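pipeline: protein-struct stage 2 | run 1193 | Proline--tRNA ligase
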Amino acid sequence: MTEFSEWFHNILEEAEIIDTRYPIKGMHVWQPQGFKIRKYALSMLKEILDEDHEEVLFPLLIPEDELAKEAIHVKGFEEEVYWITHGGLTPLNKKLALRPTSETAMYPMFALWVRSHSDLPMKFYQVVNTFRYETKHTRPLIRVREITTFKEAHTVHADAEGAQKQVERAIEIYSSFFDQLGIPYVVTRRPEWDKFPGADYTMAFDTLLPDGKTLQIGTVHNLGQTFARTFDITYETAEGEHEYVYQTCYGLSDRVIASIIGIHGDSAGLKLPPGVAPYQVVIVPVLFKKGAQEVMDFCNQLKDRIKKSGIRVHLDDRDLRAGKKYYEWEMRGVPIRLEIGPRDIANKKMVIVRRDIMEKEIVDYNEETLITDLNNVLEDIKENLRAEAREDFQNNIRPAGTVEEARDIVTNQKGIVSFSWCGDEECGKEIEEYVNVDILGVKEESTEGKCIKCGKESRYLALLAKTY
Ligand SMILES: Nc1ncnc2c1ncn2[C@@H]1O[C@H](COS(=O)(=O)NC(=O)[C@@H](N)CS)[C@@H](O)[C@H]1O
């Protein structure tokens, strides 16, 4: 959808997710509706992380000399770092950076915390705002200058195998989180020239937005011993030796919320996975002159019962035409709408409308099974959203046997292209140049076919796409 960008900006405003009128480019205000969606998404993520990570909170500011310690890392961020130079009217004798990410804030402290092998492994995470002076086109939730929902995990291990296992564990964590949100993704190993500054290698999660461009929604970095050597993070082995630790870090951001909105949304507005929906059920009483009070009494009791079950429910008793209410709650993506009129009460029926399939269904109103029925429908909606998004995603991954074919697909159908690659950097750069896209990375080793650029033996099955 070429007008996807317009749709996206409109729905952020109409559904009151964020207010982009804040007077700093790339920095926005979370409004109550959006803040709730963000809150529920984060509580889903924390529930997974808290199984085997400790949550911490580090200062926002990083001393210039700490940030500069890791040469490759600081090179990678030098154009994006915001600096603090004054405390009030007093110039600071040492500039302070607003964290673009927290390696150089955390690792001097890790050097103090890590003493013996028995302290390892350590697995921390924090959910903070980070700041990056993005010079490319900023977009709300997608490419911002204040990343408000930056979940960064940082782990410390005694050996390379521990770090490798943690990379695999982080990929499981992200997979399960995105699966719960119904966000489809591919995982690739980023090319050497596109890995995180200072990492040995980067694994990345990419999803696809309706305009056919991919969005990097999460990354997992194996940092090896690079930062350990820079920040002197060592531990005493059982034999009394001192060894440098091995580290990983993995992050995701506001882009997760952008994906929920962009991928599940449709022309009627938001379509929220129940797990993050501020309201999961909205009750709309259908009122006529006759029997209005009876309907309201019934709806209030119904609301109380549903609320007590833990389902997030809202009774819309505003004095508005029912159709206006239907439009609003569909636009806000409420998974289930119940419409209750006098006849329904008399016939012990209720009308249920599922936001995912947008069909009215008349069902029995059964006191005993009501809550179970609603939870089953919510679960069904969650699975249906996930299946629909996955199907659409898979249909937008197309193979290309030549660079011409790859360019044709990217130009006309957009989406992701899979291709055979010899793995040679020169070749990779020429493919990016010719097709005018980014190589997302390597999906798996594969000797199938010939490299689409040089014709040599293929080493990898790789993916490329137009990206955000
Ligand atoms: N300007 C931005 N706006 C929104 N999200 C961003 C922005 N820059 C990066 N991200 C998201 O943040 C994730 C982590 O950023 S990162 O640079 O790849 N990795 C790190 O910073 C590591 N320290 C892992 S915590 C990225 O995968 C991407 O999804």
